[in-house]
Amino acid sequence: GQQLNQSPQSMFIQEGEDVSMNCTSSSIFNTWLWYKQDPGEGPVLLIALYKAGELTSNGRLTAQFGITRKDSFLNISASIPSDVGIYFCAGLTNTGTASKLTFGTGTRLQVTL
Amino acid sequence: NAGVTQTPKFQVLKTGQSMTLQCAQDMNHEYMSWYRQDPGMGLRLIHYSVGAGITDQGEVPNGYNVSRSTTEDFPLRLLSAAPSQTSVYFCASTLSTSGYNEQFFGPGTRLTVL
User: Fold this and answer.
1) Which single residue of A9, A19, B56, B114 could bond A76 by disulfide (Cβ 3.0 to 4.6 Å)?
2) What is the pLDDT along chain A (113 residues), one digit of tens a residue?
3) Which of A7, A65, A103, A107 to mutate to test the interface with B (most CBs of B within 10 A)?
4) Confidence category of residue B100, pLDDT binned at 50, 70, 90
5) d(CA B78, nearest CA chain A) in Å
6) CA B35, CA A37: separation in Å to the nearest integer?
7) Which chain A residues have a beta carbon less than 8 Å from that of B45?
8) For residue A30, what is the DSSP state?
9) Which residues pair with A102 in a beta bridge?
């Protein structure tokens, strides 16, 4: 099946630092999504990207849909302790009967004071 | 409006036992799906449904059955549990299958098969 490679696998940063993570694929996606998962919870959507080259912000988060449609990145500026969690990218494909999400392997973010 | 609910939250089974993981949503969403989450592998799609009476296989369907008799409920059945099915299971729902609508995930069921 399709594979999404997400990097880095984990990050330890200090509060106030900026964070950057990315996702690459061997396949083209119609839509890129970024989710955050808190411990013991399900993923929650952060940002959705619909067009190649699109750059979208949501507060301190900025994400871009790569021009080749095979990659995306997520930046978090001025990190705070509540940013701790696992961040997943996901690519969406439309199969005709339904849309399917393929998830990346996740980036675990730890923020130290 | 409770969103997506899943029960149980935790479950321990012995190899060969059967059980049903329950999922319900009260948002009148057409599309529901089941994922499993394993360490280092992200979420993988098990089965999905585009509406009542319609189900289809995802990426890792073996060992699991689903049915969709109502819009609200989408149970996942393990007929004969195996240790390889130890995982965290997430149910998700989205408004429709046309274009993209935000998927809402339940809180998960943590299953251990001994």
Assistant:
1) A19
2) 567 899 999 999 999 999 999 999 998 998 999 999 998 899 999 999 999 999 999 999 999 999 999 999 999 999 999 999 999 999 988 766 667 788 999 999 999 88
3) A103
4) low
5) 21
6) 14
7) 100-102
8) S
9) A91
